[in-house]
C-alpha cells in the first residue's frame, strides 16, 4: 500500500512509522526543520521508541519504507490511504475546535489523489466527519481516533489499547475500507498483541468499526473520563489539604477497591497537556441543548483546582518580604519535552496577577524569558533566589531544598 500521512507530530509520526514497517509511507509536514531532522534519522520529539525506529532505519539495521517531505505532490500522489494528523486547537472565541488544518490537508490530498481513502486521526468535534462528507460531497472520508500518550506515542501504537475506525454503517464500501485500515494498524502492532487476552475474554487487539459520529464520541468521552478521574482525585486532595488530612492514606484506602482501581489517581495542579483541556471543552460544546451537569463540572473543576493551588502557595509566603516564586519546570509530566497547556502555567499566571515575581527553571527552553517572566537554566541559582519552589511533579534534583518545595505529587509518578 502507498500511504500518505499529513503532520509529523506525536500522532502523525508514530502512525507513519508504524505503517512504514509494511507499507510505503510518505509523511508530509509544513515545517521544513522537522522534515530535515526526520530525513537525517532524528526525531523532532522526545520519544524513545520513535528515536530507536529512526536510528535503526538510518543505519540499515531495521529498514522502513518511510519518507518525509514538505512536497505535497511527492507525498500525496496516487496513495491508497491518506492519514490526517494535523492540530485541532480549541478556539476560545468560537468555543469549538479549529479544524482548518484538517480541511487544508484534505484539500491538498484530493488534488493529487482524488480517490484515496482519507482517514482523519486528528481529534475532531462529534459529528464532524459526517458534516464534512456532506459539505465536500466526498464519500471517501473515515475517522479513526488516536489514544496514544505523549512520550510513548509509538509504543502505544505498537501496543494499542484498542483500534477504532469510524465509517458510515450504511455504506458497505466505507465499512470495508475501515476494516482494511484497522488491519493495517493491527499489522504494524507488536506481534505479541495478537495473542493477548482482554478483560472480556477475547484474544488480540480489540477492534471496533463503528459509525463516524460514534467513533468521534468515543474519543471525546474517553478523554473526558480521564479528565474526570484526574479532577476527582485533585478535588479529594483539595479537601484533604484544606482539612489537614493525609491525602495519600485516603487515596490508598479508596483505590484498594477493585471497582475504583489504582492508577491515574496521583494529585496534580490540574489536568493539562495538549488534549484533555481542549477535548473536554469540545465535548461540552457538543452537548449544546443536551442536559448535563457533569461535563461542565469537569471543565470548571480544573479552574477551581488551579486557583486553590495558587492560593495555597501564596498563603505559605504571605509573611516573606519580597518573595520570588520558583516554577520548577513548565512541563506537565517528568520526562516530557513540551509544555502545551500545562497546568502550572495557569497557576503561574495567578502569581503574576497578584504582583508576585516568578523565576522559572526550564532547561528545555532556549530563551531566558517566558511570557514576561525570567527563565534560568542554572538550578543552583534557581534554588538560591526563590522563596518557595512550585513543582507539579517531584524531582530528586530538589531533594536538598525539599523543605521549600510545594508539590502535590504524592506518589511520585505521572
Ligand atoms: N498529542 C497527543 O497526545 C494526541 C493524542 C491523541 C490525539 N491527538 C490529536 O491528534 C492531532 C495532532 O496532535 P499532535 O499532538 O500530533 O500535534 P502536533 O502539534 O505534535 O503535530 C501536528 C503537526 O502537523 C503539522 N501541520 C500543521 N498543519 C499541517 C498541514 N496542513 N499539513 C501537514 N502538516 C501540518 C504541524 O507542523 C505539526 O508538525 C490533534 O487533533 C490532537 O488533538 C493528539
TrEMBL record:
Segments forming a coiled coil: none
Catalytic activity: UDP-alpha-D-glucose + 2 NAD(+) + H2O = UDP-alpha-D-glucuronate + 2 NADH + 3 H(+)
Signal peptide range: none
Residues engaged in binding substrate: 147-150, 219, 264-268, 272, 332-333
Every UDP-glucose/GDP-mannose dehydrogenase C-terminal domain range: 326-413
Active site: 275
This protein's pathway: Nucleotide-sugar biosynthesis; UDP-alpha-D-glucuronate biosynthesis; UDP-alpha-D-glucuronate from UDP-alpha-D-glucose: step 1/1
Enzyme Commission identifier(s): 1.1.1.22
SUPFAM superfamilies noted in UniProt: 6-phosphogluconate dehydrogenase C-terminal domain-like, NAD(P)-binding Rossmann-fold domains, UDP-glucose/GDP-mannose dehydrogenase C-terminal domain
Gene Ontology annotations of biological process type: polysaccharide biosynthetic process; UDP-glucuronate biosynthetic process
Positions with a binding annotation for NAD(+): 29, 34, 88, 123, 150, 278, 340
Domain of life: Bacteria
Keyword annotations of the record: NAD, Oxidoreductase
Record keyword Amino-acid biosynthesis present: no
Family affiliation: Belongs to the UDP-glucose/GDP-mannose dehydrogenase family.
Record-given protein name: UDP-glucose 6-dehydrogenase
